[in-house]
Amino acid sequence: MMKKNIRTIWILLAYVIVISLVIGVIVYSLSLKLSPVEIKINEILIGGRGRHCKGFFIYDDSGIGHNVFFDIISYTGPGPLYYVQPDLVNAKEIFSGCYEFPETISPSLVTSGIPYYPLDIEIKLSSGDEINSNESALLDVSVNFSDEYSENSYAIPFSQKDSHEVVFELQTTNFDYAPKNEEVKPSPITLSLPIIHRWVISPKDKTMGEQYLMVAVYIDNHQVPFEISLDVRSLIGTNPIVLAIGAAIGSGIIGMLTITKTILEIREKVSNLRKKKRTRYSKSRKRK
Predict the structure, then answer these.
(1) What is the pTM of this model?
(2) What is the full per-residue pLDDT of the chain (288 aa) written as tens digits?
(3) How far apart are CA 277 and CA 271, in angstroms?
(4) Rounded distance, CA 208 to CA 37, Å?
(5) Which of 19, 39, 110, 274 has the least C-beta neighbours within 10 A?
(6) What is d(CA 38, CA 16) in angstroms, rounded to the nearest whole number?
(7) Which residues contact 87 (CB under 8 A, 6 or more apart)?
(8) 8 Å CB contact between 232 and 39
(9) Judging by beta carbons within 10 Å of its beta carbon (0-12, 13-18, 19+), is residue 100 exposed, middle or buried?
(10) CB-CB contact of 30 with 243 (8 Å)
């Protein structure tokens, strides 16, 4: 009988292990499918190509130069500013294609240059920060030329005499998005006409943690690329793997407690049987 009870315990233990693993897999699958996630823009890094090595100078109406490096300018005030050809301002050529511009030039030379207007770029998730992992968010990129440079403006060549077009491009491996780049058509842009482009984005399966989207804005042949850092995380605050392990361990503990209870009950029954045998034996001896 004892051997039979031990065999029963081992069978129960095997069932507990199998059931714990199955519960862990089920919890993991459900947490991936159903758990809400949060997408937040952590950081936006914007920068194009500086035309000359360490940048170049563009000048205001007074002939004062302001350095532009990767389309970034440390200047606030009215625009446009002007890029003047190096030979007209006696810029010193350090090596091929790289010039050292004077900090000031004659105001009469300024307007002969190429006008650079301030470009403001705004990025937001218009549907809010929270989405389900099987749902989508709307990513809006707004570009707008103005006549006033601010701390967030970028200096872009732009002539009001000519027509200009803007095209948007998105590169990512961990998000599905629409429209695709080949479906995006050029849009006309002017100083008074802001352009808003919208993508529908959705994190792919098992996409969690910090992710990056590469976006490029093309204004004619001038490229302004920037990187968007997004945080995709479960709103329940727990990694699906941790949930699965916790569920498996929890069910295992419950199973082990059940087995322990069964063992104690078996021991109690065996102890009672032994007591009965001893009682019968002592009674039989007294009769003799």
Answers:
(1) 0.62
(2) 555 556 666 666 666 666 666 665 565 555 555 455 555 555 455 444 444 467 789 999 999 999 888 788 889 999 899 999 998 988 888 777 788 899 999 999 998 899 999 998 888 876 565 566 667 888 899 999 988 998 878 899 988 878 889 999 999 988 899 999 999 999 998 887 889 999 999 888 777 777 888 888 998 888 888 888 777 766 555 555 655 566 666 666 766 666 666 666 766 776 666 666 666 555 555 555
(3) 10
(4) 8
(5) 274
(6) 36
(7) none
(8) yes
(9) middle
(10) no
- Cβ 57 vs Cβ 65: under 8 Å: yes
Q: Which tokens belong to 78?
A: 């009215």
CA of 35: how far to CAs of 200, 206, 235, in Å? 20, 11, 7
Residues 6+ apart with CB under 8 A from 110: 59, 60, 61, 63, 82, 84
Q: Which residues partner with 93 through β-bridges?
A: 99
Distance in angstroms (rounded) separating the CA atoms of residues 110 and 224: 25
**Angstrom distance (rounded) from CA 166 to CA 164:** 7
Q: State the Cα–Cα distance between residues 73 and 119, nearest whole angstrom.
A: 11
| AA identity, residue 133 | S
